[in-house]
Design a protein that fits this description.
heterodimer; A: mainly alpha; two-stranded antiparallel ribbon; two-stranded antiparallel sheet; 11 helices; globular; B: alpha/beta; Rossmann fold; 4-stranded antiparallel sheet; 10 strands; 27% strand; P-loop_NTPase (chain B); amino-acid transport (chain B)
Chain lengths: 301, 233
């Protein structure tokens, strides 16, 4: 039992990373019906920016918690700008063309980011600095261990979720985002600037992916230019699992996928881990294509 | 207030509006009547900037709005309440109204809510309810309330009575008249020509993208041509 709970805690850490990335997939899909396959690579860029910021700031002698916060902020800000730029240059010109054209462009942008990364940073993995000193805590005197990193990850994820929830529910931009994703034309008739609203969506999604990148670096201590591929695909699975377009769906889908994967590994099937994630995708697509929180999509006739 | 001169609008290869000219004066209710596919909705979409005419001019308050963005046109006070209500079903009544005031200064928000709730007391009762759960009539009220939140100088209404029970239709037309009496100019597209001609000052009859008849609403309502074609006498 304790072993199971231990793995559940580990699973939640992995799941938090998937959930943060999945939010970007789901928000962008909600607003322009595009599966942004470059999103996993924005996560990678965010991770590298986090790495360099953390190194620089730690050398400057700042206390660890400040280093963590500043690295997160820097990484999220630059990645948000990257997200806006990608949308403006690659997707906006295609907004009136077929969805498949935009999808293929997204795959192109993904390769562009990956191999620009390889060109500049080299293909080999780099060590992510230990921002916080790693401590182990025992839960309620049992043998269940919780790392300080895992607590930081959970806290960061919860805070970001709350901020996101606040933005989407209560701010003008958030309401505009919901309006545009529901009915673009009606939103325009309210005087909503659709272009700016789409930019905001990309900015928020990319910033969340960057936060996931920093958290990933802190957890696995190793980052490389192709690191975004697998987590990107997994987060896509998580978004579909939760119901693409649904924000709570992305959160639940991410956490669920993370825990299922970790439990499978812990049962001794670690080589099956990735296979299980995609088996989950296939099963959802067969039995509940709209996902856990998704609405049934009615095609307009 | 609004002068449309010789506009030609295309939907892909379809020539939807042909050399169409209309005008609306301050304080009027002008109605556009005509069969399905006559181009009424197309005209409203062109006025609000959703569609761009190939040729012709549109002047609103003595300024050309042909090349303006939808957002700029809304800011000028030309507000389009679209066909089929198009409320944001996943949001509350209150949030829908707030989006109607998207370009307004937030300082006037409270007074605007008050104004809309006075006109539509039903919306006040349901302000926390999801718009998608409202009845058809309530959704129409919400769509109109949402448009009014944007301080329209000219309000474009597309088929506000569509699919409503006769009693509700009466209510909706009464409210349109009230809104007009309170100082908002109205351009009204209607299938229900009988009711529309009753409250309107002037009317245009559209057929396959052209104005075929225009004039005083009362006179048109009495003309045999209109009676035969649109009023079912």
């Amino acid at each position: 039992m304790e072993y199971f709970i231990q793995q559940l805690i580990n699973g939640i850490s992995v799941g938090s990373i998937y959930a943060l990335i999945a939010l970007g997939y789901t928000m962008v899909y909600g607003i322009i019906k595009l599966i942004n396959f470059a999103h996993g690579d924005v996560f990678m860029v965010g991770s590298f920016i986090g790495l360099y910021s953390a190194k620089y700031l730690a050398n400057a002698g700042l206390p660890p918690i400040v280093v963590l916060l500043l690295s997160l902020i820097i990484s999220m800000t630059i990645s948000a700008l990257l997200g806006i730029t990608i949308e403006r240059l690659a997707y906006k010109p295609l907004r009136k063309s077929t969805r498949i054209a935009a999808l293929i462009t997204a795959i192109g942008v993904s390769f562009l980011l990956e191999y620009t990364g390889v060109l500049i940073l080299g293909p080999q993995a780099q060590g992510f600095p230990d921002i916080m000193e790693k401590k182990q805590y025992h839960l309620f005197g049992s043998s269940i261990q919780v790392e300080s990193n895992q607590i930081m990850i959970l806290l960061t994820t919860i805070i970001l979720m709350l901020v996101l929830q606040y933005i989407v529910r209560y701010t003008k931009t958030g309401k505009a985002m919901r309006a545009v994703s529901f009915d673009v034309e009606a939103a325009r008739l309210m005087g909503i600037n659709v272009d700016r609203t789409i930019s905001a969506t990309f900015a928020i999604g990319s910033a969340l992916a960057a936060a996931a990148g920093v958290i990933f670096g802190m957890t696995y201590n190793s980052v490389d230019p192709l690191m975004g591929v697998m987590p990107g695909l997994k987060a896509f699975v998580a978004a579909v699992l939760g119901g693409i377009g649904s924000i709570p769906g992305a959160l639940v889908g991410g956490l669920l996928l993370g825990t299922v994967e970790t439990e499978i590994s812990s049962l001794g099937f670690s080589s099956w881990r990735d296979g299980v994630a995609f088996a989950v995708l296939i099963l959802i697509l067969i039995f509940k294509p709209s996902g856990l929180f998704g609405k049934n999509v009615r095609e307009k006739v | 207030m609004l002068t449309v001169q010789g506009i030609n609008v295309y939907y892909g290869a379809i020539h939807a509006l042909k050399d169409l000219s209309i005008n609306v004066k301050q304080g009027e209710i002008v109605t556009l009547i005509g069969a399905n596919g006559a181009g009424k909705s197309t005209l409203l979409k062109t006025l609000s900037g959703l569609l761009k005419p190939k040729t012709g001019s549109i002047e609103f308050l003595d300024k050309s709005i042909v090349n303006q963005s939808v957002q700029a046109i809304v800011k000028e006070g030309l507000i389009h309440c679209p066909e089929g209500r198009r409320v944001f079903a996943n949001m509350s009544v209150e949030e829908n109204l707030e989006l109607g005031a998207y370009l307004q200064d937030s300082s006037s928000l409270a007074a605007d809510f008050q104004r809309v709730y006075n006109t539509f007391p039903r919306l006040l009762e349901r302000k926390k309810q999801q718009a998608g759960t409202l009845s058809g009539g309530e959704q129409q009220m919400l769509a109109m309330g949402r448009a009014i939140m944007g301080h329209p100088k000219l309000l474009l209404l597309d088929e506000p009575s569509m699919g409503l029970a006769p009693l509700l239709v009466q209510d909706i037309f009464k409210i349109i008249k009230e809104v007009n009496d309170a100082g908002t100019t109205v351009l009204l597209v209607e299938q229900n020509a009988h009711q529309a001609l009753k409250i309107a000052d002037r009317a245009y009859v559209l057929e396959t993208g052209r104005v075929v008849l225009e004039g005083d609403a009362k006179e048109l309502a009495d003309s045999d041509e209109i009676k035969m074609a649109y009023l079912g006498h």
